[in-house]
Amino acid sequence: MPEARCERVKPADADAGIPAGLDGYDAVLLTGSPLHLYEDTPEARREIAFMRAVFASGTPAFGSCAGLQVAVVAAGGQVRAMGSRREIGFARRIFRQPDGVDHPLLAGRPPVFDVPAIHGDEVETLPDGATLLASNGVTHVQAAEIRHDRGVFWGVQYHPEISLREVAAALRRQAEELIDLGMARDRLDVEQQAVLVDTLHREPERRDLAWRLGLDEQVLDPMMRMTELRNFLDRLVLPTRAARGRG
Questions:
Q1: Known catalytic residues?
Q2: What pLDDT, in 10s, does the model give residues 193-243?
Q3: If both were cysteines, with which of 61, 68, 102, 170 could 155 make a disulfide (CB 3.0 to 4.6 Å apart)?
Q4: Ramachandran category for residue 93: left, alpha or beta (phi over 0 → left; psi -120 to 50 → alpha)
């Protein structure tokens, strides 16, 4: 949607400058965040208050990773730390739950798929008014719809919005954690994995690297990777915009 006009705000910051009149916006998108929503900090409280205002406005909202977690807590659910479990790099073998089989958020995804993912927290309990759409063997809540107050939120625990280059950067950034968790022996292990991912970003036609990393077009093709974002815009935002008489 290249013609869209976007405004960026940082609700966790005390001087965020959050605009008034959220119902005047077509959509709100919440990204990942280093905040832990189970910690009672001023930053977390401000994020949750912002999301409650979004729900009250009736403006369609989408969130990835911590964005999903913010919406869950704002609507009355719970988030927890994953302990020794992690998804750092890619979430594998995500499958639809029964309510996700025909849900428009996942339209175009195959029955089982992989996606970029980086998280150490997860949804523990969905709030009332939420529908579980997808899971995998590591994280039960991989995708959900939340209806709360006047609003509708679609969210995923993974990152349809990030590139392979950003995945490689995340691996390097969290190298010490990967070593501490036993997922890598040392920094060389992490760097070798990051180089493979980074190279595949630059050379997406490298079938040999895709095979070594176990990735298919669901991750390699940018349009397929961003399926949930496109579905949110096409199937929730634009119809809501039309219903509000905005064209």
A1: 65, 159, 161
A2: 999 999 999 999 999 999 999 999 999 999 999 999 999 999 999 999 999
A3: 68
A4: left
**pTM of structure:** 0.95
Q: Which residue has the tokens 């199937």?
A: 235
Query: What CATH code would you report for 25-161+227-243?
Result: 3.40.50.880
Asked if 28 and 233 count as a contact pair (C-beta separation under 8 A), the reply is: no
Asked if 144 contacts 124 with a C-beta cutoff of 8 angstroms, the reply is no
Which residues make Cβ contacts (< 8 Å) with residue 182, sequence separation at least 6? none
List strands edge to edge, sheet with 112-119: 28-30, 61-64, 151-156, 143-148, 130-135, 87-96, 112-119
pLDDT one-digit tens code per residue, 46-100: 999 999 999 999 999 999 999 999 999 999 999 999 998 999 999 999 999 999 9
Question: Do residues 22 and 53 touch, judged by C-beta distance below 8 A?
Answer: yes
